[in-house]
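Archive entry. Fields below.
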Amino acid sequence: MLNRLFLNRLRKELPRWVDEGWVTAEHQRLILEQVSTQAAGVRRAPLALGVLGVLLIGTGVISFFAANWSLIPKLIKLAVLFGAMWSAYAAAGWMLTRRARLERGFGHAFLLLAVILFGANIMLIAQTYHIQAHFPNGVLLWALGALIAVYLVPTQLVAVAGLVLTGLWSFLEIFENLAHDRVTLHWSFLVVWGLFLPQIYRRGWRHAGTVATLAFILWLLLNLVDLADGTDAVGVDVLQVVLPVSVCLFLIGAIMERSDRLFGFSATVRYQALILGLLSLYGLTLRFVHDLGDGLWPRQAATAPWIVGTLVALAAAGALAVLLHRQVAAAQRQSYLWWGYGLLGAITLIVIANLFRTAGEGYATVVYVLYNCAYLGGLVWLLYAGYQRNDAFQVNVSFLFFGIGLLTLYFDTFWTLMDRSLFFMGGGVLLLAGGYVVERQRRKLLRRLETEVRDGEPP
Amino acid sequence: MRPALGITLTAILQSLALAAMIAMKQWTLATGTEVVLETAPIDPRSLFRGDYVRLNYTISRLTAGEGFAPGDDAYVLLRQDQPYWAFVSVHRERPSPPPDHVVLKGRVRSAAIGDITLSYGIETYFVPEGEGRELERPRPGDIVSLRIAVDRFGKAGIKAVLVNGEVRYEERLF
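PREDICTED_STRUCTURE:
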């Protein structure tokens, strides 16, 4: 799990360790040299240039042949298609065996080009031989081609491309289900997606890990939308499943943080779960979601599959919280952890109460107010925990959602009460003043975090 | 694994996948029963896109009764007739075809009040640029038909495009 972030952190930390007498200055030099060599891996600049070049070449080649395709005999077409793919592989092979980093960087880019050409070949051969099949299958074949490359010539770029293709395949399948009003969860995505994970884990590919998490979240959301569409569920049902699922992901990320091998993937899982969870909780603070005012969705009790799904997700979140609690040594359990458990318990109670909701507007108003309190409480907790853990991202996201919540509250409360012109003027003032205050507070907090990290004081 | 070996294996496996696509299509064309199908007027909403022709058949829309849903497989029994093969019946499971009959496998695209719209994987054909319009909207008196091959699994492939019974485009391996 060696990378530039780790190197940067070592550069900050090592001088203090030398001062403390834990390592010698010579050891510091040796450690930094060793980690620099390993962390360098593929340099970003040549890789970025190579990828850009590859994309331009790929686009140009495809455009050229698309314009003249009908004039070219089939045999020549096949020679061009296979020749281009093999040439890209040959170039990648030659460059990857060079010692220079620059050439290795371009080698990875050529490997990506070869995989792109494999996909183009699938489409062009289908066109040449008039093969008309279930369209998502073509994308699946492309993703599987990338998967083969990921195992035979390990390259993070291709893993990222393969995961994007896997996500696209699932999106096309689910889109087709939606178009045909079919309620079928696209489970096969998990098989292909799961096949990428061992290699990502083994190689410690952080970017591929980020894309894998994102692909999983998007798959989950798309399936829930498909399921909601087919079972006449309403928005609040979907949000109340997404919320505990994102808590589960967040807790999984926190548990991963305690494992040496999984540490590097922890942040991306936690951060994506954090954004997903805040988005769903934010959704639950909106009046129309609870059919208050001009509701878009009719208020109705959740149906059995949604009640079961929500309860299972809540139970999983509870089990993961217990698991995390056991992993944290008693001496390390800070106060924010206990507040977090309390908040999780409160949110669980609100979700359960709203699963068996009645049609009464008073009940919905109480739930709406409780969700707003949970949103505010959640943000305060995230700020507090982020500060305790020196987590700048968590602090920034919390401030962002705090601003969004404030603006929404303003829109919700004053839109119908004030004259429109006053409303907009007030909104402008709130944006300017509120933005200034929130941004000032955020920067102040981040400066404090930086100072404390630099000085080595516990926050 | 050494990069050179890994890359060679990747290229070989991917090339095999591409070759399999061609081989499966050619197997259908080489071993399938030849069937001539009548085309129907092109759906006016289908636009001609470049050198791409959208084909519609008289068996693309059938009265099948209830029991079919979009995405379902459907098996269409055709009987040899002159000049075109004729529709006999449509089934949810593959029937055993009597002599001079073939079973064509299709996928239900839409189903409403007993009528179903099917696709058989032979609805598109790429022709040289500028020649597609003539096939989509033939001149008065011109008849466009398709000679297709149907393999033992019901899969179909276009062998030739006929205009007034004369071969206009013929499918070859190279």
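CURATOR_NOTE: The mean pLDDT of chain A is 83.
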